[in-house]
Design a protein that fits this description.
elongated; 3-stranded antiparallel beta sheet; 5-stranded antiparallel beta sheet; Molybdopterin biosynthesis moea protein, domain 2
Length: 367
């Protein structure tokens, strides 16, 4: 029997049972479809999680291997801070460093873990661990570290002051005409900046120390610098520590030149010579002076007594007859003047002799 509207009025119970069973089957089918859909989604999520975990594990293993290989391949590196360095600037720095070194960035925990796992082979790396703090990275190289630092400094970029950021340097506003209208006067007054109106614009009268090193930049200070189109800060890879074949030292050491080392060495030699002379202790630096002083004392003793020796005879002769000393000085003056001229002629003569000998060797050897 087909349950139509007319038959439902005549036979209500069979039609009610039919629609009830049909509704149950329909609901059951919908439930099965929804359950299968959820099951498929769960399976997909589980498989993605398993695959992602496997990929993550493989990535970590490759990252650890790369860290260790860099420390093995490069004997020196720079530990750099990367605060306030954007992705675009980092890409520019990587391009500038191409062919000169490699830049390594990553989580500090992973870098420490990789280094600790490599300490048995290279225990000197343990010195780096206390400095891997904050937002840092490594620049590995085999070139001169001073030149690498110069390249990093060349890639610093100017940046505006941001409210809440720590100031890396002092910022001072010089006396100037700001070009702003009088309506901004209250803004300067709030910052206690002395100004005056000059030709319809605000002029700063005195130099103002608007931001101090290490302090947080205020919202008003940042807004004023932005209105003046001033970018007081510059950010880039800042060298914090230098690692060179197991030794760690401050980047200030890179500022020391060979002339500085030579000057300090000579100053040390002079100090050693002075101390050695003061205590009469012979050293390589003091022996020439000790011998010279002793010889002078011997000459003094010989001049005052009858004791004599070969080197003192001429001195005694001059003391006995000073006119001989005057004649000796007069005779030595022309000879001293002629010595430079003779020295100039001698190299030319040597060159001529060398050319003649070369000619003889070139043609007379096989005749």
């Amino acid at each position: 029997m087909v349950c139509t509207q007319a038959s439902a009025l005549k036979h209500p119970l069979p039609c009610y049972l039919f629609f009830s069973v049909f509704s149950l089957f329909l609901l059951f089918g919908i439930f099965i479809i929804v359950a299968l859909t959820f099951l498929i989604l769960i399976l997909l999520l589980l498989s993605a999680a398993i695959m992602g975990k496997g990929d993550r594990t493989a990535w970590k293993a490759n990252y650890f291997t790369r860290i260790i290989s860099l420390f093995d391949d490069y004997p020196k590196c720079l530990l750099v801070g990367v605060d306030n360095v954007g992705s675009k600037q980092m890409q520019e720095i990587r391009q500038a460093m191409r062919g000169h070194g490699e830049i390594l960035m990553g989580k500090n925990t992973m870098i420490r873990k990789a280094i600790r796992g490599h300490l048995q082979k290279n225990p000197l790396l343990e010195k780096l661990l206390p400095y891997i703090v904050g937002n840092v990275g490594f620049v590995f190289t085999t070139e001169d570290l001073s030149e690498i630092r110069k390249k990093l400094l060349e890639n610093k970029r100017g940046a505006p002051a941001k409210a809440g950021a720590l100031a890396p340097l002092d910022v001072k506003l010089p006396p100037q005409n700001t070009g702003m209208g009088p309506e901004k006067t209250s803004f300067f007054q709030a910052l206690q900046i002395p100004t005056k109106i000059s030709r319809g614009t605000i002029e700063i009268l005195n130099e103002v120390h608007i931001i101090k090193l290490g302090e947080k930049v205020g919202a008003s200070e940042a807004a004023l610098l932005n209105m003046l189109n001033i970018q007081p800060f510059s950010y880039g890879l800042a060298v914090q520590q230098v690692y060179d074949t197991g030794a760690i030292y401050s980047p200030d050491v890179l500022d020391i030149t060979m002339d500085d080392l030579r000057a300090r060495f000579m100053n040390g030699v002079r100090n050693i010579a002075a101390v050695s002379l003061g205590i009469s202790y012979p050293t390589k630096a003091s022996i020439p002076h000790i011998i010279a002083n002793a010889f002078k004392r011997l000459l003094s003793v010989s001049a005052e007594t009858d004791v004599t020796f070969k080197e003192a005879e001429k001195l005694k002769e001059y003391l006995a007859d000073p006119s001989k000393f005057a004649s000796a000085v007069a005779a030595a003056a022309p000879a001293a003047a002629a010595a430079p001229a003779a020295a100039k002629e001698e190299p030319a003569k040597k060159v001529e002799e060398k050319e003649e000998s070369d000619d003889d060797m070139g043609f007379g050897l096989f005749d």
